[in-house]
Amino acid sequence: MYPADLKYSREHEWVRVEGNQARIGLSDHAQHALGDVVFVELPKPGRKFAVASGKMETFGVVESVKAVSDVFCPLSGEVVEVNAALESKPELVNQDCYGAGWMIVVTIANPKDLDALMDVKAYEAFLASEGAK
Fold first, then answer.
1. CATH label of the domain that carries residue 89
2. Under the phi-then-psi rule, with left for phi > 0, alpha for psi from -120 to 50, and beta for the rest, what region is 46?
3. pLDDT in tens, 15-34
4. pLDDT reading at 68 higher than 80
5. Is residue 120 classed exposed, middle or buried when 0-12, 13-18 and 19+ CB atoms within 10 A define those classes?
């Protein structure tokens, strides 16, 4: 259910490392919990984010029929690409969260940030500890 080649945050973002960049989106668990996504707000390319003492900055907002939720950047770096398709088709987050529903691409400023993220087994154990499927 959760791709093994990704890293995951406790806030339910996924990270796919692509060389010195990382593609980031919401996990299947997060999109399912949110329900139908109706609006996505993303940063502009060039925006920089930092992870300090394990605290992540908010990079966007996802609005669903159930709630409005912040989306966090689990890595320090600069946004080099945003998924502009989500502006007109926010439902892609629900339909294909690991593919067409990705959100941003950042240049990885501190590779050590990846060490704080979970592999798929740890993420599944984390979900189980929270009572999720």
1. 2.40.50.100
2. left
3. 999 999 999 999 999 999 99
4. yes
5. middle
131 in any annotated domain: no
Residues 6+ apart with CB under 8 A from 23: 15, 16, 102, 104, 105
Query: Is the Cα torsion angle 31, 60, 39, 105 positive or negative in sign?
Result: negative
CA distance 123 to 133: 11
How far is Cα 79 from Cα 59, in angstroms, rounded to an integer?
A: 9
> Can you give the pLDDT at residue 30?
96
**Within a domain: 23:** yes
Q: How many CA atoms lie within 13 A of 54 on its CB side?
A: 5
Rounded average pLDDT over 102-128: 97
- The residue behind tokens 């969260």 is 97
Domain total of the chain: 1
